[in-house]
Design goal:
The protein folds into two domains: about 5-110, Alpha-helical ferredoxin (Fumarate Reductase Iron-sulfur Protein, Chain B, domain 2); about 120-390, no CATH class. It has 16 helices and four strands. The chain has helices spanning about 20-30, 40-45, 55-65, 70, 85-90, 95-110, 115-120, 125-150, 170-205, 215-230, 230-235, 245-265, 285-310, 320-345, 350-370, 375-390; strands at about 5, 15, 400, 405. The strands form two sheets. A two-stranded antiparallel sheet has the order 1-2. A two-stranded antiparallel sheet has the order 3-4. The two termini are about 20 Å apart.
């Protein structure tokens, strides 16, 4: 069941709770949200909650009712940044911030394609299997690199100027082909998932008669990008203020490394590359510096987040395996990358090859499992923000005028 409404004997709506959904939420975060007495403190105290049909008050009662379909299609779930201002001031310690985080996790699992892989990624018991997959695939790539290179007519060395590559067993061309194949699969999976997610949110708006579109999708997307790049919503929160520092570190650190990776992968067709392309980069290459700064930003973001989770004086939660697996993967990608670079420059054999292989395993886990992990937040939240912007669903949004009458501008 999806926790639907049906007409009762007196035509009053009755909720058919999804008991499995209730049990899933309770296993993940406990049953504190059941203590909610609907006082509205959480909605009133949230600086991001719109004035009309504010959150997270309604989401907490929907969760208690087991109203799964309504929650998973609710854009408001993604307008929450889990700063925990609401949880700090809740008189019943219902932890509404934790609840919305749990619903976001269930939303990713629900809309993911294929769904079984999402369940694996979000179950700590499958971590050994999920790490074994890239180990096996990269091992096969390593064994086949020689025969493939010979068959394709690719020389063992790409040029005289490259005197010491990171790994002759896993050459540059092989890794580009290897990760490009999985990049296409990830992009396809993410596209299918987001289409389902978007349709569900739109259907929820239409079904409950809760909104009039006030802005085009393109304009909403541009406005959302501004919000994402400035991280101004994090600045509004007060309890978990540290996120205003840690999240930009994550975002811009990963963005910097993505730019460098894109430059490397497209070097053969990039019109901006005028001279002979040399990889690995020299230590003082601008691209190497940008990549190292990005890696340092990721490490800084991870340290700030771990410190807040373990030792923060403000209200915070230590998180669960869903949170920690992403955080640990992210910091291991950065640290093994730095260690690979160090061992490479000191010409340490065979250590640099071993560490490079481990680094690639964690890169695979971070990127290929992205549609199913907490990393998918960046796409799901952006999508929900675009829809919310389009329907004026934000704090302080101007009222929507319909047929000369003023209405609350938002989806329910």
């Amino acid at each position: 069941m999806g926790g639907n409404l049906r007409a009762g004997p007196d035509t009053a709506p009755l909720v058919e709770p999804d008991l499995d959904f209730i049990r899933t939420l309770s296993r993940g975060i406990g049953e504190n949200y059941m203590k909610c007495m609907q006082c509205g403190t959480c909605a009133a105290t949230c600086s991001l909650s719109p004035e009309d049909e504010s959150f997270p008050r309604k989401e907490v009662i929907w969760a208690a009712w087991g109203w799964k379909d309504r929650l998973l299609g609710d854009p408001d779930v993604w307008l929450c940044y889990q700063c925990n201002d609401c949880s700090t001031r809740c008189p019943r310690s219902a932890h509404p911030g934790d609840l919305l985080a749990a619903v976001r996790r269930e939303s990713i699992i629900h809309f993911a394609y294929p769904r079984f892989l999402a369940r694996w990624v979000n179950d700590i018991r499958y971590i050994p299997l999920l790490l074994a997959i890239p180990v096996i695939l990269l091992g096969l790539a390593w064994r086949l690199s020689g025969p493939l290179g010979t068959a394709l007519g690719i020389p063992a060395f790409t040029g005289e100027r490259i005197v010491y590559s990171y790994s002759n067993a896993l050459p540059h061309w092989l890794l580009i082909g290897f990760f490009s194949v999985f990049a296409v699969l990830v992009l396809s999976s993410m596209t299918l998932s987001i289409r389902r997610f978007w349709r569900s949110m739109r259907a929820d708006i239409v079904r409950h008669g809760g909104g009039v579109q006030v802005k085009g999708i393109r304009a909403s997307f541009v406005a959302t990008l501004k919000t994402v790049f400035t991280h101004d919503n994090f600045a509004i929160c007060t309890t978990a203020r540290i996120k205003y520092l840690s999240h930009p570190c994550f975002f811009f650190g990963f963005l910097a490394m993505s730019i460098v990776a894109l430059w490397v992968v497209t070097a053969g067709i990039n019109p901006l590359v005028r001279d002979s392309f040399i990889y690995p980069f020299a230590f003082w290459s601008p691209w190497k510096i940008l990549a190292n700064l990005g890696g340092l930003a990721l490490v800084a973001g991870c340290i700030l987040t771990i410190r807040e989770r373990l030792f923060g004086t403000a209200y915070n939660t230590a998180g669960n395996s869903y949170d920690w697996s992403f955080l640990v993967t992210l910091i291991l990608v950065a640290l093994t990358g730095f260690l690979t670079e160090t061992l490479h420059y000191f010409r340490m054999e065979p250590h640099r090859h071993v560490v490079y292989f481990v680094h690639l395993v964690f890169v695979f886990a971070l990127l290929v499992y992205m549609p199913y992990s907490k990393f998918a937040h960046v796409v799901y939240r952006t999508t929900a923000l675009v829809l919310a912007e389009s329907f004026g669903r934000k704090r302080g949004a101007p009222p929507v005028v319909v047929d000369g009458e003023t209405e609350g501008g938002g989806c329910p």
